[in-house]
């Protein structure tokens, strides 16, 4: 747990020492090192801002003596506003358990003890009202959290919730407003798509989150925005405060809070090395992608914001293999209409140029993607619930609007339409019928469209993979979504940290499923691509090449790495590895095989450092090789390792 | 000021003094004009009319709570609080 003991409410009367240090502490004590998961490459040293819940979104700002009354009034007004809101809800509920819980909240909001503590924070400590509320409620919550009784510990959430209500009322607005004026690292429990969307264009230089994995939304967004991230950092909010200086190492998945001078120096060295390496890769972004034995590949980008299209282009993406359109629906009360969507698709087409296709995926809403546009029903198991194409078919007007906008966009550049989470042929046929109808109607209305707009499916449900040949016969392309395929095949919730070890795309079961789709595509002359996370990691990408995939879509920033990795390995090696892997028993065996085979050739690609980091190889050059791109590999002729036993 | 009235009660309901129980107690206390404070093993001198305050009295089953009322109607207030606690805060459990 946290090293800091919960604050005593009594102690709150004393002004806390200013919590914003001016810079890295100069004393020799080492910073607090926390290990997490490397979510996005890069190294950065910067002050921290804490976001996530309303509770942590307040500004820690002290006020002038003459503002005390104002802040007190702000608090009083917030109490009134929240109380009025609660009373209204209670009246709506008209009795029942829900109402009695809200009753308790109502009492807490106007609670004299809370009021007294907040007043003390404002008057004596000169805290702004929001800070005062946060400090007071947190102190109560911590106090309850320290109880032995688990039931009482749970009660902290009640108080935190009341604190949230008050903070929201004080903020006047619940949308996350990222008031970031200087380059900052964002620390949060988790970042929603809406949170990260709100950060685009802000000087955010890194992410640290308590939850997440390499494939979680925060990691993906961080890589897309080209900022380092460490995710899965346990108790990050407890150990990092707003204003702390943090050295974030997204290569090693490590965070140092308030590093000492040596640690800062070390991080800066690593940062310089990484930047040199990234520049090196970038210099080759326009080279064609091919394996060492000259087999041509298509490397495309996954994007979710139109702004990312230009990032994709600068990373040498041959078009967009997956545009996650659900982000058009985030953070708004009404779904985007046809013309709005058309404008956005046109922007993406403009940014990418017209020589490569843009694959527009119809909205994948539901599951882990909470979207404010729709009132999603509460589901016990949302990942198996009304999401993606299921929601689209349940709300045909939404789908129709989107299909029409996508078809109209085809007049401005090459567009493909892709349907997510298809489990049965019936679903594909229903979408196809709507697609045909949309075409006919648009033609009647004289709207220009491309003659052929391919309609494809995501292969991410095992049942669909079992029927891959039929799907191949009825769709214009198939794209394997490895993240969901892993989740649904291995029955692993991919957001569950405790199960992360099971969720491996290297599991031989997953490889067999991928192989089935590849074979089905071949037999029906239906193109097959992969747009899952697996494609963006060197080992995964090489394995996919060996399984017969030539078209990989990934987050844009991974493209230079994957291009580099492929250029060092002949396809024949990939195929041998894939054949061996398909015969193996466990994901671990496959991972070991990949490491043994490819690691010596890819060390720098894997670590993001021109030379192996620690320890430096005896003959290592300390400088980044700038004249040559590929390190001469002593293991050029290395033979594929046999499978490990056991 | 009138006399101080004191009472000592033991929490007997299974769930202890949870949020709803605490709010019931605070609400009851608020009906009386007198000042009422509660003391338990974890906290002393908590304002009985404050849910937050009451919640801070680690009120698991078996906890002994001291009630101290000062002012008008003090006796009735202490009695009523004792009854509420003995009545398991009106809960079925």
What does it look like?
Chain A is an alpha/beta fold and 646 residues long. Chain A folds into three domains: 21-52 and 177-278, Phosphohistidine domain (Glucose Oxidase, domain 1, 3-Layer(bba) Sandwich), CATH 3.50.30.10; 60-171, PtsI, HPr-binding domain (Enzyme I, Chain A, domain 2), CATH 1.10.274; 291-571, Phosphoenolpyruvate-binding domains (TIM Barrel). Chain A has 24 helices and 16 strands. An eight-stranded mixed sheet of chain A has the order 1-8-7-3-4-5-6-2. An eight-stranded parallel sheet of chain A has the order 15-14-13-12-11-10-9-16. The longest helix of chain A has 26 residues, at 68-93. Chain A is globular. The two termini of chain A are 37 Å apart. Chain B is of the alpha+beta class. Chain B has a single domain (4-90), classed as HPr-like (Histidine-containing Protein, Chain: A). Chain B is built from three helices and four strands; from the N terminus they run βαββαβα. In chain B, strand 2 and strand 3 (46-47) form a beta hairpin. Chain B is globular, with a radius of gyration of 12 Å. The N and C termini of chain B lie far apart (39 Å). The A-B interface holds A 9, 100-101, 103-104, 107-108, 111-114, 140, 143-144, 147-149, 151-152, 155, 158-159 and B 15-16, 18-20, 22-23, 26-27, 42, 46-47, 49-53, 55-56, 58-60.
